[in-house]
């Protein structure tokens, strides 16, 4: 169960506040958005007036996924992750701040565009295999790193969790990494900087004879070398 703001309806309508009034710490700066706006300001919960202002621009989302993700985002802003989703993830935040919400929804947008390229038009059509294919797509990008790829997968876990918690879920499938862990869905861990060689070790068939000749050089020629060395 999640704590629900008492001033919000279970299902938003066009004029429902994007952010529950009880979460607003900077009222009137900037204008408080309503659910039907194309641009959602995430700044009202930010106490520091000098902090960077962040917005969600829904016009940038593919139309088929816009309303499904809009509802999930509204849930994410105003409620916490269900306790069952947090099990095994002690570092996860039950509720994200405005910048965390912005980054998560930005990753949803990337996912929505990729789904559109695959010919899908609803989150309900996204299967475990679809999630696996997207994770592989992210992991194969040039310069892909594990930390950023992990954030991509966590963002999609939040999409599934908040969709399931809404009054009218789209039917997002649970991502497979929520059950099996993320390691198999991430780019390979780099060897450099982790106490390992960046190149494969020389094979025993090659190293053995080299060591033998090195020992023979010492045993057989050391005296001759020292004798031939000019005295100083």
Would you write up a description of this structure?
With 232 residues, this protein is mainly α. It has one domain. It contains seven helices and two strands; from the N terminus they run ββααααααα. A two-stranded antiparallel sheet has the order 1-2. Helix 1 runs antiparallel to helix 3 and helix 3 packs across helix 5. The longest helix has 25 residues. 24% of the residues are buried. The model has no long low-confidence stretch (mean pLDDT 86).
- The helical percent reads 40-55%
Pick out the low-confidence regions.
none
- Mean pLDDT level: 86
What is the beta-strand fraction? under 5%
The number of distinct β-strands equals: 2
Taking strands numbered 1, 2, ... along the chain, how are they ordered across the largest sheet? 1-2
Helices and strands, in order, run as EEHHHHHHH
Overall, the morphology is: elongated
